[in-house]
Amino acid sequence: MKVLHRTLAGVVILLLSAVGPVADASQSTVSTVARVWTEPASGYGFLDSAILQARHSIDMSMYELADTTLENDLIAKAISGVDVRVLLDSDFNGKSDNASSYALLHASDVHVEWAPPNQIFHAKYVVIDGVHAYVGSGNLASRDYASTRDFWMEDTTSSDVHAVASTFGTDFAHGAVPARASRGLIWSPGSTAALVDLIGSAHHSLLVENEEMDSASIEQALELAAARGVLVNVVMTSSSEYAVALRGLASDGVHVHVLGASQLYIHAKVICADCSGGVGTVFIGSENFSTSSLSYNRELGLITKTPAAVRAVVSAVDADYSIGAAITAPATTPTPPPTSSGGAVAITAFEASIARGAEDSLSVHSRTADDACSLRVVLPSGYVSQSHGLGSARANSAGNVDWTWEIGPNTGPGTAHATVTCGAGSLSRSFTIT
């Protein structure tokens, strides 16, 4: 019987090793961060210094590399005998964006590889000597450093660093083994549940910054948090691509502020739950709030309670939120008062307040079927908007007609005027651009 028990135990061990690491129920669900850097204020000198101090090995996985200083550092360390391996994204625009860096490194002693095809490698991390893992949200593209909000962290927890290094080794060799788990590391594919759980854990407040808002799961989690009384503040860069999602969040009680094109670009991907005075739980990583990023890409972030990380995120996100323009919930007027059209033309839906960079819309009912109508918008500056979507449109057989157009991100705030002219009559309505 002892022999049988040993045989069964051996089979179990082999099976476990084949499917990868198994999470220890007693293992902490958060990681400890040694240091954190807030961009653009911190700059990337910390990473330059870390690379130059490497003695044995450097592993780098990067979505976009375009920093001459760092590239030359990698080459110099490779020449000195350090084992330098660099994995660059090849999918989407990777082959073109990283072509120069790949060619430069490939001509040197650096071991550089294109990441496996048919998957976006959006993770941004560097492992030094197998004992320091630098994980961030920012690409190593020097042209963006001065204008982009990002965060980087140093993780020296041995299990975390080993997990990152192990996963890098598999990816570098184009292996198919899933990313290795450890503590608060958040890997994609498959990070949606962890981020939704973090949002769901908040009792009092949530601070969120992200470059994208295109995940129904994340949006629903934020809306549910607001519904249960959590103060939810979201900061993004203004983009017509996410205008509908942001207005939807605002409609459900989420406080959304957007920064304009001339302001700091929000590239950070952070969530801070119940964060105040250095206490709270924060996620920092490369994951955007999109189906691709959360479910298909190679991404890496981590969740931590380290006070320095909490304070850094709170300070930056609060500052960004304070200078952003508010996205307000759509205000509709289904039964507008009579106008000069004598009731022959009526506005059935209209947003009375709209943020710069967002999409506005207006719906009209004419008493004449298939009526020929047009919409003219005069901006607060006095100029007539030339936005695509305005102008002529024909009502349907029920007399209904709709327009959707973008409020340019550089449009000045103030009162704008919309004038609808149909065969049956015309009317005007004012609205506010914030």
Offer a quick outline of the entry.
The chain has 434 residues and is of the alpha/beta class.
Describe the overall structure.
Helices cover 27% and strands 33% of the residues. It has eleven helices and 28 strands. It folds into three domains: 28-186, Endonuclease, Chain A (2-Layer Sandwich); 192-327, Endonuclease Chain A (Endonuclease, Chain A, 2-Layer Sandwich), CATH 3.30.870; 345-433, Sandwich (Immunoglobulin-like), CATH 2.60.40. The strands form six sheets. Strands 1, 2, 4, 5, 6, 7, 9 and 15 form an eight-stranded mixed sheet that branches. Strands 10-19-17-16-11-13-14-20 form an eight-stranded mixed sheet, with helices on both faces. A hairpin with a 2-residue loop joins strand 27 and strand 28 (425-433). The chain is of the alpha/beta class and 434 residues long. The chain is elongated. Residues 1-27 and 332-341 have low confidence and may be disordered. It has helices spanning 2-19, 45-52, 68-79, 94-97, 99-106, 158-172, 192-200, 216-227, 243-251, 291-295, 307-323, and strands at 35-39, 57-62, 65-66, 83-88, 111-114, 125-128, 132-136, 140-141, 148-155, 185-188, 205-209, 213-214, 231-237, 255-259, 265-266, 270-276, 279-285, 289-290, 299-304, 325-327, 345-350, 353-354, 359-366, 372-378, 391-394, 400-406, 414-422, 425-433. The longest helix is centred in the first third of the chain and has 18 residues, at 2-19.
- In the CATH classification, which architecture of the largest domain applies? 2-Layer Sandwich
Mean pLDDT score: 89
Q: Which oligomerization state do the chains in this entry correspond to?
A: single chain
| Class of secondary structure makeup | alpha/beta
Could you estimate the helical fraction of the residues in percent? 25-40%
Count of DSSP helices?
11
The portion of residues forming beta strands comes to 25-35%
* Uncertain stretches of 5 or more adjacent residues: 1-27, 332-341
CATH names the topology of the largest domain as Endonuclease, Chain A
Distance between the termini: 78 Å
C-alpha geometry: elongated
**What's the CATH first level of the largest domain?**
Alpha Beta
Give the biggest sheet. Answer: 8 strands, mixed
Radius of gyration over alpha carbons? 26 Å
